[in-house]
Amino acid sequence: MSAYQDAIQKLTQLRQQNGAAWAAINPESAARMQTQNRFHTGLDIARYTADIMRADMAAYDADTSAYTQSLGCWHGFIGQQKLISIKKHFGSTKKKYLYLSGWMIAALRSDFGPLPDQSMHEKTAVPALIEELYTFLKQADARELGGLFRELDDARDANNEQQAAAVQQKIDNFETHVVPIIADIDAGFGNEEATYLLAKKMIEAGACAIQIENQVSDEKQCGHQDGKVTVPHADFLAKINAVRYAFLELGVDNGIIVARTDSLGAGLTKQIAVTNEPGDLGDLYNSFLDGDVIKGADDIANGDVVVKANGKLLKPKRLASGLFQFKAGTGVDRVVLDCITSLQHGADLLWIETEKPHVGQIAEMVNRIREVVPNAKLVYNNSPSFNWTLNFRQQVFDTWQEAGKDVSAYARAKLMSEEYDATALAKEADDWIRTFQADAARDAGIFHHLITLPTYHTAALSTDNLAKEYFGDAGMLGYVEGVQRKEIRQNIACVKHQNMSGSDVGDDHKEYFSGDAALKAGGKDNTMNQF
């Protein structure tokens, strides 16, 4: 017996137990509502999606072609349409996640208005967006299942048992739109207690994976901007522990922690690490500090700080801001130490923020990490902050040049120019971009590829195209030709926007509740019938 039929049977028994007072309750209608609302709480979602991610991580360990992907979404509707599209085009949501970007929350969801990615937005906006995303994904379930239930009723009314059985099978094998969310907690929005409190809210909203970075929370910068300041390992590990305790308190025992390091592009630290003995984590962190070796008190000026590192007295270079500098060229070594330390102290996945999308650069760091932690895996930001076209054309240029191939027809610094678009170099670069995710998953340990803020850009691009046409000579044709006609021909579900907003689901409920007296919106005069 299917879960749907089992629910009908149980509800039939329940109605019988309650006698005449429940006579108006239709067990199958109630079973349909239960089926359309599989997840009752965010914790149900977090536990379910954590299992999915853990299984996907194991699958990747066995076969690196089984990598996972996501797109960052700044609104529930965007996330919903993404998952509907994935199911339409690929038949399944497997290995497809959502990413919740702190950058997009700051830029688009703050009551303060648009903000830079510096943790200035309200921390409550983060769990609020997680909850919103899952509300829209659950509605996508209800909408699709509602359509199947109506198909089932039509088949039954036509006495078409074969069609009814086929629809019933679709109901029984229905795949939910609810998928894992990797959610950005920035640098924790405060101390470790603040991190724990926010992590709890995020998990309660449905997050099974939380990404946290090793920047100073009150100095946090976007990973692709200058001025990044990291914290000693002990501070970061305390926040990793805080997130793990939040997962455990809420019963999400297999929740995932993504530890992000910004050390590759961060040349500053706010504090000198506490160290108890040579070679401990604090001592290793301090060994990267830039400064001058001194011999005695005569080399110390008023207000100078001195530490003992590598057996010598070091006067670290301190800026007017009070921040300390790291030695130039130590970024890779600091990244490797950060990653190994995070994995050895509770993190499940790594995030290395880089300045360009280069498989070789990423692989160099991951291979060193895997010498200590063999199953180390990355979440990687396929960032819109990279100029992908220029980066990959220059990578191909450099590869050709090293191989002795003639590149005299190309000006390396100007490879973004349209004049190169039809060249062999540009075509090879595009092919490298196309295979970047598969190549990096195979060669650089990347388990999950995401784009942080793609829907920020797609919203701007599509709005620009519409505004240009609609307010220009095209007038209404700008909308019809550029939007609606494409929606119809590409079978975009939201062309029937009344249905997408829940009108048909509401009609179903009215009929359940009021029977023949229900006043429904989906009758013959509904203009959605034109589509």
Automatic annotation (TrEMBL):
A Pfam family hit: ICL
* UniProt-annotated binding residues for Mg(2+): 184
Report the co-factor binding details.
Can also use Mn(2+) ion.
Q: What InterPro entries does the entry give?
A: ICL/PEPM (IPR039556), Isocitrate_lyase (IPR006254), Pyrv/PenolPyrv_kinase-like_dom (IPR015813), Pyrv_kinase-like_dom_sf (IPR040442)
* Catalysis performed (reactions): D-threo-isocitrate = glyoxylate + succinate
Please cite one Gene Ontology biological process associated with this protein.
carboxylic acid metabolic process
What are its cofactors?
A: Mg(2+)
Domain of life, per lineage: Bacteria
Arranged from A to Z, the UniProt key words for this protein are: Lyase, Magnesium, Metal-binding
Provide the active-site residues from the annotation.
222
Spell out the molecular function terms from Gene Ontology.
Answer: isocitrate lyase activity; metal ion binding
This chain's protein is named: Isocitrate lyase
- What does UniProt list as this organism's lineage? Bacteria, Pseudomonadati, Pseudomonadota, Gammaproteobacteria, Chromatiales
